[in-house]
Amino acid sequence: MLHTVAPPSRSPSLSAPVPRAADPDRRRTSARVVLRCVLEHGPVARSTVARLTGLSPAAVTDHCARLAGLGLVREAAAPRRSGGVGRPHVPVDVDASRLVVGGVHVSVPYTTVALLDPRGRVVAERRLPHADTEPSRVLARAADALAALLDGLPDARPLAVGFAAGGWVDRQAGTVVEHPLLGWRDVAVRETLGAHTGLPVHVDGHARALVGAERLFGRSARGSRSVLLLFAGNLVDAAFATHDEVHHGPRSQAGTIAHLPLAGGTEPCPCGRTGCLQAELSERTLCRRALEAGIRGGTDSARVVDAAAAGHPVAARLLRERARMTGRAVGLLTDVLNPESVVVTEAGVLHRPDCLAALRGELDDERAATVVPASFPDSLLAVAGGAVALDVLYRDPLAVSPELN
């Protein structure tokens, strides 16, 4: 079992008591704004945080003191004075030295467990092939693997666990309502993982988790007023965010796009139709076609990408064809949502410029320019799990403190 820990002690330079605000919700909102500003701009002077957020310098100093007491920010190295007068500004930055969140992502062939620091960087990761997909055993193995990762980082202080998966995931209830390829129905993930780890557990769908990660830590979608993310794995789904809010819909059913009809699709779908988006773009379809073409080890999209990199012409063609079909899916979704940025996780697009070009070639120039690969090509699933917990942290950082729970 993992164990929670008391918040770290305050740094001597930031140990002055912080008065309680009359409106606790306003205090939480201001703390969130300050922490997000430090994440975006750090190392950054408190005076700059005040200017960027519109808060008073005294309020920013108080919030930085509280966040430092929780171990979320720390003073960066003091700048050298260069002949100026007065006290130099000591910048603050997100403290990524000790606090971590756990991440669990359950996909069809394996579970990915990871530890992420507060900047969304993966500090430890392990992949667990499924011996079976019975939910309680999958989650127990994931909890044991998280404990082992923490044993390898004795100074790490775990805050929470994030869980992500495809299919229908109810964030509020903390359940996987339905994952058709795993055969999961109404799995109480939050309750089960919480019992195993002793930590708060936050649950969401992987496309929504990755939209949050892109907005917090990504290269291209950060600052966009609206972002669409298309996740193409064994399951195919989407997520949409506007003004820092990810759309979930009733019972978190938003983003279900598996049976959208895709022009030119030829793959039979279990629903009885042909050319459904998931049937056409699924990793299973890509790998089956690769095996039929004689590509050895073609049971994972990474193997197909490796074969293409090694010069296998059929592997490269299959990846380009899948990317073109992904472009048609992007066209369908952008016709409806008209996002400012589009992020795609499809394997070929993540790793091959020719695949990105093939995808963009299915769109007009204006929309093609909005499409970018996901920011985490080599740690996509690890980031997805941990990002669920980090999103909660950055929305309400004061909840780290037991006195405020």
Automatic annotation (TrEMBL):
A Pfam family it matches: ROK
Keywords attached to this entry: Kinase, Transferase
GO molecular function: kinase activity
Composition-biased stretches (Low complexity): 1-21
Stretches the record annotates as Disordered: 1-27
Domain of life: Bacteria
InterPro entries xrefs: ATPase_NBD, ROK, WH-like_DNA-bd_sf, WH_DNA-bd_sf
Family: Belongs to the ROK (NagC/XylR) family.
Name of protein: Sugar kinase
Lineage, uppermost ranks: Bacteria, Bacillati, Actinomycetota, Actinomycetes, Kitasatosporales
